[in-house]
Write a structure and sequence with these properties.
- By secondary structure, this protein is an alpha+beta fold.
- Helix content is 30%, strand content 22%.
- The longest helix has 23 residues.
- The two termini are 29 Å apart.
- 37% of the residues are buried.
- Bound molecules: 4-amino-1,4-dioxobutan-2-aminium adenosine-5'-monophosphate and magnesium ion.
- The site of magnesium ion (MG) has 3 residues, from strand 15.
- 4-amino-1,4-dioxobutan-2-aminium adenosine-5'-monophosphate binds next to strand 11, strand 15, strand 16 and helix 13.
């Protein structure tokens, strides 16, 4: 079907041309003006119909959500708010949207309501904007790494390993769950399963990315990852996308610099490419915060916040220093924190938020965490207590990026495996990279949906992925 996309018809370049557009009616006012959206951009095309020449029966069908095709002449708009409008010559209804039944009407719907209508929520301005920005971010990430000489590795979705050692895996099996084969001891006999051993959906592509980095130098993975953590929060999904670069001959300082450069580069790209959508999301945020007390609202508009991140160097603090800061903080002294603060604890989101939102008021990289709360593959520091880990925290989100320098010394890594009860025969291939041509290397993982939240100002992770998977929810 030959058609012009609305995004290309909003300046004066095509004035005077006769052309065809297709899209969905947003509004039909005064029996004369149609606002048409085709998803190519946030803005609608104003179309003016001649009441006499379009049959009344057709006009009646022009309700919110109706799909139409229209042919007309693009003219300079007489009205305010748009440069161009289409004087309609021919109009055809492609698909009706019965206003009695169609749930997406031109009134404010709550995000909760729209989550239940996730198959139709793309048709709202908010979700159109979110998913166009998501696409731009996706592309900006590939561009950043490609320009930097990285190669993308498609690491497996099905694996036998638990990279993070957190045991939060979805098992993959073709065994009959009602009647699995059993061995002599009565345990399920996985030698009869599809892969001849237990397997699961990956929680991270890192371990395999490391293998590739130790040959191609710098690689990244960007794929779906799966975690069966039963945390029903606004920042956790059971299926999410993660970007994981891995770089040979890079230490923790190089890794931090890469994370900072990556984040700044993608923010710069979307700020310049998605202004219309970001302006809309900025206004949406202001409106949605109206009911909140002043101290819970954003202190700066969305685009200014993102620009500020691009402009300022990230701050660095060690875990040990962060604990000190927290113990000297007002909420700690006034016993306002729900969770204890002492050296060795995993920082809770209330602690991370105080650090980024109240103390540093911008992105901060926390390094050198206690070994006990981090994964087995992180490089041990000389102090014997901490590892060369880094988390990048940002306001409103908390942890956006987690990474580390990797333990490249075979004996140390084997000791870690023993400590974490990871049988060496399960990851013999990982240990082999430390046996042959081992070298310093580092990498990190950035949660893609958390990035989309950060950039769009959306406060629930379920609203930045088309079809969220969370505990008790895999609809659509
Ligand atoms: O900190 P995580 O668990 O680190 C790793 O998986 C490492 N293997 C990364 C690496 O070094 N290559 O996860 C990395 C990021 C987090 O910082 C967070 O942004 C995101 O992934 N993330 C989640 N996002 C949505 N839902 C979840 N359940 C998430 N769990 C982690
Ligand atoms: Mg982490």
């Amino acid at each position: 079907m030959q058609r012009e996309r609305i995004v290309n018809l909003r300046d004066e370049a095509h004035i005077g041309e006769e052309l065809t557009v297709c899209g969905w009616v947003r509004t039909f006012r005064n029996n004369q003006f149609i606002a048409l959206n085709d998803g190519s951009c946030l803005g609608n095309l104003q179309m003016v119909i001649d009441r006499e020449s379009i049959p009344e029966a057709t006009q009646k069908r022009l309700t919110t959500g109706t799909a139409i095709r229209a042919k007309g002449q693009l003219e300079k708009s007489q009205g305010q708010g748009q440069l161009t409008e289409l004087k309609v010559l021919e109009l055809e209804v492609l698909g009706d949207a019965d206003p009695e039944m169609y749930p997406i009407q031109m009134k404010r719907h709550t995000l909760e309501f729209l989550r239940e209508k996730a198959h139709l929520r793309f048709r709202t301005s908010t979700f159109g904007a979110v998913f166009r920005v998501r696409h731009a971010l996706n592309f900006a990430i590939h561009k950043f790494f490609t320009d930097g000489g990285f190669f993308q590795m498609h690491t497996p979705i099905i694996t036998g390993s638990d990279a993070e050692g957190a045991g939060e895996m979805f098992q993959v099996t073709t065994l009959d769950v009602n009647d699995p084969p059993r061995d002599e001891a009565g345990s399920v006999d996985f030698s009869e399963d599809f892969f001849g051993k237990p397997s699961n959906l990956t929680v991270s592509g890192q371990l395999e990315a490391e293998l590739a980095a130790m040959a191609l130098g710098q690689v990244y993975t960007f794929g779906p990852t799966f975690r069966a953590e039963n945390s029903n929060t606004s920042r956790h999904l059971a299926e999410f996308w993660m970007v994981e670069p891995e770089v040979a001959f890079a230490d923790l300082a190089d890794n931090m610099a890469l994370a900072e450069a990556c984040l700044k580069s993608v923010l710069r790209d979307v700020l310049s490419q998605c202004d219309e959508d970001l302006a809309f999301l900025e206004e949406r945020e202001v409106n949605s915060e109206k009911s909140l007390p002043q101290d819970q609202r954003q202190s700066q508009p969305l685009r200014d916040r993102l620009q500020a991140v691009v402009d300022a160097p990230f701050q660095h603090v060690t875990y040990t220093e962060a604990i000190e800061l927290l113990r000297n903080s007002k909420p700690f002294k006034k016993k306002k924190f729900k969770y204890p603060v002492e050296w060795g604890i995993d920082l809770q989101s209330e602690h991370e938020r105080w650090l980024v939102e109240k103390h540093f008021n911008g992105p901060v990289i926390i390094t050198d965490y206690p070994a006990g709360i981090k994964a087995f593959y992180m490089r041990s520091n000389e102090d014997g207590k901490t590892v060369a880990a880094m988390d990048v925290l940002v306001p409103g989100i908390g942890e956006l990026i987690g990474g580390s320098q990797r333990e490249e010394r075979l004996d140390r890594l084997q000791a870690k495996c023993a400590e974490f009860e990871i049988p060496e025969e399960h990851i013999w291939w990982y240990l082999d990279t430390r046996r042959f041509g081992s070298a310093v290397h580092s990498g990190f993982g950035m949660g893609f949906e958390r990035l989309v939240m950060y950039v769009t100002g959306m406060t629930n992770i379920r609203d930045v992925i088309p079809f969220p998977r969370t505990p008790q929810n895999a609809e659509f």
